[in-house]
Specification:
There is one protein chain. The chain is an alpha/beta fold. Helix 5 links the parallel strand 2 and strand 3.
Length: about 400
């Protein structure tokens, strides 16, 4: 057995994604551990300032996870039991769960069967079917910028604002991603140009690793003040210019302990310095995949994600022509020491949501899910590892 109970085969496995921790990251965290503050110290605000500059937004509020970021966004925008959230069917559970914490309802929109991004026609259809009295409530559209591709935020905004829906972008996959729309305008993920907030995740497999962590970007100063208060129990410390009562605080709302520690913030700030470099490596890996997997024996078997300028490549998702072939490939690659993953099972298929919404089926989501497989892509992936993935896929297809 190897270290920490892993055997040699597990240690030689190529993961579908992984964190990339450097000596400078370790030193940044070590400095905090040797300081007077492990949490609620100066690193958090420094990290927020760095993220604001990186994203080009007015405020960033960091928190304990991407799920917390979504929960806080709904809370600050006054979600309630009568709220509806329109969510793409292909996403992680947290996107939909966060509205359920308030007793609100989720309605699933269909997605593009190639990219997994929210389908605009489906969104229009869902909004048109909302009862007029319900349109007066606090309702939400939550586009997900899936796999590193920017969602159609501009189109979602036009549709949503006509019916008074508020927009929250789930940007957990897409920091610094962008696309050019049909008019030639650049649409940037997490810019909050079209949305009230954008939610980020700093889980180890994401572009930026804090261990665990998340953030809410916004261009509303009023909204950011609500977010700051809600992430720390709903407590606020009134400004006292004479510092007569520095100990005094008031709870003005019901919040949560969603704070990020200084250790997590220091790691995130250190990682942020190499973010552009790491995205460039992800882009290079995606380009090579498309070049190699577009040739024999892959042509005709695999549908590849389009190489879109501005894509930040959190995931590289290929599509097999059938679920059976996809599942066989997953098992074959696992035996070859290559981990793959499914992103995602349509949310409406999960027992929890099926119990609430009944059995539904959306054609784009079903087509996307039928053959999707996320193959390894991460910044520290070597050319040799990528070659092994490509050759193993070729071996599978030649023998299937």
């Amino acid at each position: 057995m190897g270290r920490l109970g892993y055997d040699d085969q597990q240690m030689n496995t190529i993961p579908y994604s992984k964190q990339d921790i450097t000596e400078s990251d370790i030193n940044a965290v070590s400095r905090v551990m040797a300081s007077d503050y492990l949490t609620q110290g100066p690193e958090v605000s420094k990290f927020e300032d760095s993220l604001q500059d990186t994203l080009g937004v007015k405020k960033v509020v960091v928190c304990s996870s991407g799920t917390a970021a979504l929960h806080l966004s709904y809370a600050a925008l006054e979600a309630n039991p009568e709220s509806i959230a329109l969510v793409p069917a292909i996403t992680f559970s947290a996107t939909a769960n966060a509205i359920r914490y308030f007793g609100g309802s989720v309605q699933f929109c269909d997605v593009d069967p190639c990219t997994g991004l929210i389908c605009i026609d489906s969104l229009k259809d869902k909004i048109q079917k909302v009862d007029k009295p319900q349109l007066k409530k606090n309702n939400f559209v939550v586009p997900v910028s899936m796999s590193g591709a920017t969602a159609p935020l501009d189109e979602c905004k036009k549709i949503a604002e006509r019916s008074g829906f508020k927009l929250i972008e789930d940007a957990s996959h897409s920091i610094l991603s962008s696309k050019v729309n049909e008019t030639g305008k650049t649409v940037r993920s997490a810019s909050c140009e079209y949305t009230e907030t954008a939610c980020l995740s700093f889980h180890p497999v994401k572009h930026l690793c804090c261990g665990e962590g998340g953030a809410i970007a916004t261009n509303s100063l009023d909204l950011s003040e609500k977010l700051y208060t809600l992430r720390s129990h709903g407590i606020k410390r009134p400004y006292d210019e004479n510092h007569i009562t520095p100990w005094f605080y008031e709870q003005i709302d019901l919040g949560w302990n969603y704070r990020l520690s200084d250790m997590h913030a220091a790691l995130g700030r250190s990682q942020l310095k190499r973010l552009h470099q790491r995205i460039k490596r992800r882009q290079d890996l995606a380009i090579r995949y498309n070049q190699e997997l577009g040739q024999y024996p892959f042509r005709g078997f695999l549908k590849l994600p389009p190489l879109i300028a501005g894509h930040s490549w959190h995931l590289y998702v290929v599509h097999f022509p059938s679920t059976q072939l996809r599942n066989q490939a997953h098992k074959f690659l696992k035996q070859a020491g290559i981990q793959t993953q499914i992103h995602y099972i349509p949310l409406y298929r999960h027992p929890y949501f099926e119990k609430i919404n009944g059995r539904i089926s959306l054609p784009g989501a079903e087509e996307y899910y039928k053959g999707c497989l996320s193959i390894p892509l991460f910044p520290s992936m070597t050319d040799e590892q990528q070659t092994h993935v490509i050759h193993s896929l070729a071996q599978f297809l030649e023998n299937c």
